[in-house]
C-alpha cells in the first residue's frame, strides 16, 4: 500500500516494563478519513500503544511516522503539538473549572496580560456550532455536567487544537445508548472531515457498527488488521484468543472435595449486585470478567474488607459473619490483592516487616516482637518461594515486580504461621514475568493439593483456563455464568460471555 | 567497584544529617569565645533547653509514624503550662491532682483529633490545625491573657529545676521518654502496627490490622506527651505563660522532618528526631553564644530544616 495515504504509521515499536514485554514489534497504521477500531483483552497492549502514540511513554525501539515524516514524542505536549488528541476513559478535565476554562486550558488568549474572556466565550460557542453539537452551558463547572456532556467538553478541547488524529480510549464506557449514538455521530463527522480516528473499546458490537478497519491486539502484539465489513463477532473474538495453551500450568490430580465456602447473594448496592458462588476444598475457581465488572470488589467483600449490604457466607457448612479482615483471617481466609504496590506492600519497609505483618502477633510475647524468630521464619520463606533479594532487610521497593509479588504471596501462603484454608488471589500474575508466573501457578497448585480452596480473580484468559477447575463469569456486578474446565471452546465462551453476547 | 561506591554514597546520604550535627558541634566548639560552648555548664544548659522540646517531638514522632500530622501540640503545651500553675494556685488543687487532670485533658484532645480524623474522614492536618486554634482560645479564656504566678509547687520545681548528681532532672525525664518511645516504636507489636498504618494503610487493613486504633494511639500519645511537657515547662518557668507553647509545634515538626532524613529514611523515627532536636538546640545555643539575634536563629533553624530535607530528597532517599 502507498504509505502516503497513512496519516499515522508505527514500525517495529517495542516497549518493556519490568517483567513485561508490553509491546512487541508493533506495526500499526491509520488512514486519513477512517475510523479504526483497536480491540484486545485486558493487558493486550492497547493502552500502552496509545500511550506511545500520545507521548506518555517513550518506546525503546521503533519508529513513528506522521503523514510520512518520522516523529519522536518525548512528552505528551509533543504529540499534542503534532496534532494528536485523545479522549480518555477517565477524562482529563478539571472538575471545578467551567467548560470554557477547560477547553482553553493552556490555550488562553490574552490581551494586555489578562485573559480575554469575551473572545474565549465567542470561540467556545463557535466550536460548538462548528461541530453541530447540542447547545451546552459552557459557563458552569464541569462537575455539574453529565458524563456525556463532559465527553463533549473534552472533544471540544481537542477540536480547538485542530488535530489530525483523535483517539477515543474506552470513551463509551460510562455513557447511555443515546449518548453513545451522539459520540458515534461525532466520530463520523471527524472521519468525513478527513481526520484519522482510533477507537478503543471493549464492546465488539460498537466496533462492527462504526469502524472501517479493526486491529486486534494480544499479548503486546498485533494479531491482524481487518476490514470490518468482512468479519463478524466470532472472527474478532477468535483473534483475541491465544490458541496455544501455555505449558507452564502444573499438572496434578484434580479432585475437589466437599463444599468449603458458599457465597450467596452478595451485594453492596453499587459495584456488586447479586453474586453467588461456591468453592470446594482442593478446588481452584476462576472468576473472570472485564475490569470494572465488580470482581475485585466481590473478593474484598468475601474477605470482609468492603461493606456489604446483603448476602450470606457459609464456611464448612456453618454460617459465618465476616465484617472485617481480622475476622476473615481468624476464619482461615487470605486475600492476596491486585495492585500490590498500593494494596499489598509497605514499599518503604524491609522484606521481613512485610512478610510477617499478618501474623506478627504470633511472634510476640507480652506485646514485644521477637525479632530473631521473625527473621528466621522470613529467611525460611524467602528460600521457600525463592525470593530474589539481597537480604531480608532490603526495602521491598527495590525488588523486581515478580519478587514483590512473591513477598505479597509470602505474607500468606507458606503456612509458617497462621492456618489458611481459603485463598483469594486477585490478578496474581499482573506485571510479572513468565518465569515468575509459573512459580505463582505452582504455589497455587500446591495449596489446593493440600486441600485449600482458591478463588483466582483474573483477566488473563490463559491463566483462568489453565488454573481453574471451574470458572465463574462476572459482568456488571453479577455472576452471569459458570463453566467447567473441560467445556468445549472454553476461551471463546469466556470472552463472549464476559463481553455480554 | 562501582557497586561499592554506590553503597558508600547511599550510606553517606543516610547519615549525612548526623554528620552535619557533628560538624555544627565542632564548629561551635572552636568558634565560641574561650571554648565557651563546650563548657560543662553550657552543655547542661543545652540539655535543659532541648529536653522539653524532645518530649513534644517524641509524641509528634509517634503521630507521624501512624501517618497523622499533629499541629495542635504547641497550644496543648501552653494550655498545660497555664493549667499546671492555675489549678494549683487558683483552684487550690494538689499538684498531683493537677497533673492527672492535665494528662486527661491531653488525652481527650488527642482522642477528639483522632475521632474527627477517623470517623469524619477529615485529614489530621486540617483537624489539628483547627484544634490548635481552639486550644489557644481556651488558654486565653482561662488565663485572661495574663501570666499566672504563684508559689512554684515543690513537685514542679523538682522536675523543672533540680539536678541529680549535677544532671538536670529534666534531662533524665527526657531520656526516659526517648527510651520508652524508642522501645514502643521499634520493639513492640503496637509500634510495628503504627508504622504499618502510616506506611500503607490499605495494606495494613488487608493484613487484619485495625488502622483506626493506631491513628487514635498516635494522636493521643502526641497530645499526652505535649501535656506532660507543658507541666515540665511550668515547673521550669515557675509560672504559667499563655504563649509559652507557641513555638513547640513548628520546632517539633522540624525536628521530626529532619529526623526523617536519617536512620530510618523516609519515616519518622525516634533517633532521627533526636538528631533533629539536638541540631536545632545546638544551633540555637551556639548562635546565642556568638551573639546573634534571636531572629537570625529562627532563620538559621528554618534553613537547616529545609536543607536537610532537600538534601535527602535530592538523593531520592526521601519521597513526598
What would you note in describing this structure?
The complex is a heterodimer of chains A (501) and B (320). Chain A is an alpha/beta fold. Chain A folds into three domains: 3-240, P-loop containing nucleotide triphosphate hydrolases (Rossmann fold, 3-Layer(aba) Sandwich); 245-344 and 419-501, 3-Layer(aba) Sandwich (Rossmann fold); 347-410, no CATH class. Chain A has 17 helices and 24 strands. Chain A has a six-stranded mixed beta sheet with strand order 6-9-10-3-11-12, sandwiched between helices. The mean pLDDT of chain A is 89. In chain B, strands 1-2 form a two-stranded antiparallel sheet. Residues 1-5 of chain B have low confidence and may be disordered. In chain B, 76% of the residues lie in helices and 1% in strands. In chain B, a hairpin with a 2-residue loop joins strand 1 (163-164) and strand 2. Chain B starts with a helix and ends in a 6-residue tail after the last helix. Chain B is built from 13 helices and two strands, in the order H-H-H-H-H-H-E-E-H-H-H-H-H-H-H. Chain B has a single domain (34-314), classed as ABC transporter involved in vitamin B12 uptake, BtuC (Orthogonal Bundle), CATH 1.10.3470. By secondary structure, chain B is mostly helical. The A-B interface holds A 303, 305, 324-326, 328-329, 335, 337, 342-349, 353, 357-358, 360-361, 364, 367-369, 371, 411 and B 187-190, 192-193, 195-196, 199-200, 202-210, 266-267.
Amino acid at each position: 500500500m502507498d504509505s502516503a495515504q497513512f496519516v499515522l504509521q508505527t514500525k517495529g515499536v517495542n516497549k518493556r516494563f519490568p517483567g513485561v514485554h508490553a509491546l512487541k514489534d508493533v506495526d500499526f497504521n491509520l488512514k486519513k478519513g477512517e475510523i479504526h477500531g483497536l480491540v484486545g483483552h485486558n493487558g493486550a497492549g492497547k493502552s500502552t500503544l496509545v500511550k506511545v502514540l500520545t507521548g506518555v511513554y517513550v518506546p525503546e525501539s521503533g519508529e513513528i511516522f506522521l503523514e510520512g515524516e518520522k516523529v519522536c514524542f518525548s512528552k505528551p505536549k509533543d504529540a499534542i503539538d503534532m496534532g494528536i488528541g485523545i479522549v480518555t476513559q477517565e477524562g482529563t478535565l478539571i472538575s471545578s473549572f467551567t467548560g470554557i476554562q477547560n477547553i482553553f486550558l493552556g490555550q488562553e488568549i490574552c490581551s494586555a496580560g489578562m485573559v480575554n474572556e469575551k473572545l474565549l466565550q465567542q470561540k467556545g460557542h463557535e466550536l460548538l456550532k462548528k461541530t453541530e453539537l447540542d447547545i451546552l452551558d459552557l459557563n458552569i463547572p464541569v462537575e455539574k455536567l453529565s458524563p456525556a456532556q463532559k465527553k463533549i467538553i473534552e472533544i471540544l478541547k481537542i477540536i480547538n487544537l485542530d488535530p489530525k488524529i483523535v483517539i477515543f480510549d474506552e470513551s463509551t464506557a460510562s455513557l447511555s445508548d443515546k449518548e453513545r449514538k451522539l459520540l458515534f455521530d461525532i466520530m463520523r463527522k471527524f472521519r468525513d472531515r478527513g481526520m484519522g480516528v482510533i477507537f478503543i473499546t471493549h464492546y465488539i458490537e460498537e466496533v462492527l457498527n462504526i469502524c472501517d478497519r479493526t486491529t486486534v491486539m494480544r499479548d503486546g502484539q498485533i494479531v491482524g488488521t481487518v476490514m470490518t465489513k468482512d468479519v463478524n463477532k466470532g472472527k474478532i473474538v477468535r483473534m483475541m484468543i491465544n490458541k496455544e495453551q501455555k505449558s507452564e500450568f502444573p499438572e496434578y490430580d484434580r479432585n475437589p472435595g466437599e463444599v468449603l465456602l458458599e457465597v450467596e447473594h452478595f451485594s453492596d448496592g453499587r459495584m456488586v449486585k447479586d453474586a453467588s458462588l461456591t468453592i470446594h476444598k482442593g478446588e481452584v475457581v476462576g472468576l473472570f470478567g472485564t475490569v470494572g465488572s465488580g470482581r475485585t470488589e466481590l473478593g474484598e467483600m468475601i474477605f470482609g474488607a468492603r461493606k456489604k449490604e446483603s448476602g450470606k457466607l457459609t464456611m464448612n457448612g456453618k454460617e459465618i459473619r465476616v465484617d472485617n479482615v481480622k475476622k476473615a483471617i481468624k476464619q482461615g481466609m487470605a486475600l492476596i490483592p491486585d495492585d500490590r504496590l498500593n494494596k499489598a506492600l509497605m514499599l518503604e519497609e524491609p522484606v521481613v516487616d512485610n512478610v510477617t505483618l499478618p501474623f506478627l502477633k504470633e511472634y510476640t510475647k507480652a506485646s514485644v516482637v521477637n525479632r530473631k524468630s521473625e527473621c528466621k521464619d522470613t529467611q525460611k520463606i524467602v528460600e521457600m518461594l525463592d525470593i530474589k533479594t539481597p537480604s531480608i532487610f532490603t526495602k521491598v521497593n527495590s525488588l523486581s515486580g515478580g519478587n514483590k509479588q512473591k513477598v505479597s504471596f509470602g505474607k500468606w501462603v507458606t503456612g509458617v504461621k497462621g492456618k489458611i484454608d481459603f485463598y483469594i488471589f486477585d490478578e496474581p500474575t499482573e506485571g510479572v514475568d513468565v518465569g515468575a508466573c509459573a512459580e505463582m501457578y505452582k504455589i497455587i497448585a500446591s495449596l489446593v493439593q493440600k486441600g485449600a480452596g482458591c478463588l483466582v480473580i483474573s483477566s488473563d484468559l490463559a491463566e483462568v483456563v489453565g488454573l481453574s477447575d471451574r470458572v465463574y463469569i462476572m459482568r456488571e456486578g453479577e455472576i452471569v455464568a459458570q463453566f467447567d474446565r473441560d467445556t468445549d471452546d472454553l476461551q471463546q465462551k469466556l470472552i463472549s460471555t464476559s463481553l455480554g453476547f | 567497584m562501582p557497586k561499592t561506591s554506590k553503597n558508600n554514597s547511599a550510606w553517606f546520604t543516610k547519615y549525612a544529617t548526623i554528620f552535619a550535627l557533628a560538624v555544627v558541634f565542632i564548629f561551635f566548639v572552636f568558634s565560641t569565645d574561650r571554648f565557651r560552648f563546650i563548657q560543662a555548664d553550657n552543655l547542661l544548659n543545652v540539655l535543659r533547653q532541648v529536653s522539653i522540646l524532645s518530649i513534644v517531638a517524641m509524641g509528634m514522632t509517634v503521630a507521624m509514624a501512624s501517618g497523622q500530622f499533629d499541629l495542635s501540640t504547641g497550644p496543648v503545651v501552653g494550655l498545660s503550662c497555664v493549667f499546671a500553675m492555675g489549678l494549683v494556685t487558683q483552684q487550690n488543687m494538689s499538684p498531683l491532682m493537677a497533673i492527672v487532670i492535665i494528662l486527661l485533658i491531653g488525652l481527650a484532645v488527642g482522642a477528639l483529633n483522632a475521632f474527627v480524623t477517623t470517623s469524619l474522614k477529615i485529614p489530621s492536618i486540617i483537624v489539628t490545625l483547627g484544634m490548635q486554634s481552639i486550644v489557644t482560645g481556651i488558654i486565653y479564656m482561662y488565663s485572661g491573657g495574663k501570666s499566672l504566678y504563684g508559689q512554684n509547687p515543690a513537685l514542679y520545681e523538682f522536675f523543672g529545676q533540680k539536678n541529680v548528681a549535677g544532671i538536670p532532672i529534666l534531662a533524665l525525664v527526657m531520656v526516659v521518654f526517648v527510651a520508652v518511645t524508642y522501645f514502643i516504636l521499634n520493639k513492640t507489636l503496637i509500634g510495628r502496627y503504627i508504622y504499618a498504618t502510616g506506611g500503607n494503610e490499605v495494606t495494613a487493613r488487608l493484613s487484619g490490622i485495625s488502622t483506626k486504633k493506631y491513628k487514635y494511639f498516635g494522636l493521643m500519645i502526641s497530645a499526652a506527651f505535649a501535656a506532660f511537657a507543658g507541666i515540665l515547662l511550668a515547673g521550669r518557668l515557675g509560672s504559667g505563660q499563655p504563649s509559652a507553647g507557641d513555638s513547640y509545634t513548628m520546632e517539633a515538626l522540624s525536628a521530626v522532618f529532619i529526623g526523617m532524613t536519617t536512620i530510618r529514611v523516609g519515616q519518622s523515627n525516634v533517633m532521627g528526631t533526636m538528631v533533629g532536636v539536638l541540631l536545632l538546640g545546638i544551633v540555637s545555643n551556639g548562635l546565642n553564644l556568638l551573639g546573634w539575634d534571636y531572629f537570625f536563629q529562627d532563620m538559621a533553624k528554618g534553613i537547616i530544616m529545609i536543607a536537610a530535607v532537600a538534601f535527602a530528597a535530592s538523593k531520592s532517599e526521601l519521597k513526598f
